[in-house]
Task: structure prediction
Amino acid sequence: MDIFEKIKNNRGPLGQHAKSVHGYFTFPKLEGEIGNRMIFRGKEKLIWSLNNYLGLANHPEVRRVDAEASAQYGLAAPMGARMMSGNSSAHEQLERELSAFVKREDTFLLNYGYQGIISAIDALLDRHDVVIYDSESHACIIDGVRLHQGKRYTFMHNDIDNLEKQLKRAQNILDDTTGGILVITEGVFGMSGDQGKLKEIIELKKKYNFRLLIDDAHGFGTMGPTGAGTDEHQGVQEGVDIYFSTFAKSMASIGAFISGSEQLMEYLRYNMRSQIFAKALPMPLVIGGLKRLELLRTESSLRDKLWTIVNALQNGLRERGFNLGKTNTAVTPIFLSGTLGEATNLIMDLRENYDIFCSIVVYPVIPRGQIMLRLIPTAAHTMEDVQHTLDSFSEVAAKLAEKKYEYASVLEV
Ligand SMILES: Cc1ncc(COP(=O)(O)O)c(C=O)c1O
Result:
């Protein structure tokens, strides 16, 4: 079979809808300055889809430093991988500052979070080891685990008894080998907004010998008294052996980092294939990263503003009877019951008639028959934005209950 013939008929779970949804539900173009209001198809919309938690994307200081660093260095410098010819004092300074902030001995910068965590899992484990990970882990964790040649077990999402069961299984097969156990979970789960039960997981270290890696993409900058992350929020930084986050969310940039002991970071620097065989982060991203980290650390008013908006939005939605699931973070899911067709009609109504742009999540990411809308509040939003959203959601939820979205949809399945 010609593989091009095959993909003509099997376009993938999302790709099968590409013709009818491209440019609207998928690959939409949000234009203008990044913020609470942007232009979608020529008209201003209130945007709840960007992980720009602290509003740093368009902070004047960030924009100035990004521009100056780009003018000074361009995007080429430094050339080559860090190990060969692409190291710089700025890269090392950002690593030192991140280490101090997340209270770890050392840090290694990564070009992208997705590739970075895959490569970190790959570098850490050999075929004798067992990896155990939360069933709702982000794709980058799942793809990293796929590279692992030894045993891999999943534990049911945030189910500590089930994790213990997997730890027992792992320990039983490890008795005959020289392997160890790596447990992986997230600080904040980016879809449902609940937190990984880090404290309870770390408690299990008293009975089982394992190391813990967390992906805190949504927690870094938003959680904890200083914004250092979900492990700081839960008071368990010492129990998290490997801390990972991306620059793609609170830091509003590109890149990522991984932090832990000095020995571990030296090992990763010399063994992570995503960094050894790829060009280093460009200078403007690193210098811009230093400025973002400084603001994230020193401007606690940005985090206060974020949480004012989060609380107003989530309390308002809950008071109106919406089901927000288990979120106890900034991530704001809204669960509704309905078909995929109704969900797409509801979203179009919100976009076209209420000028609200938010993301929709459907099966297979969540169970069939459920609709999940996901809103990301940020420090760039206003209380007027929240009020307009609450009023609009009350109206569309009433229409959904009255079956007003049952007309034919672009996405009928
Ligand atoms: C939980 C989680 N991990 C990792 C990533 C990947 O990070 P990056 O965008 O830097 O590749 C994301 C998305 O950005 C994420 O949500």
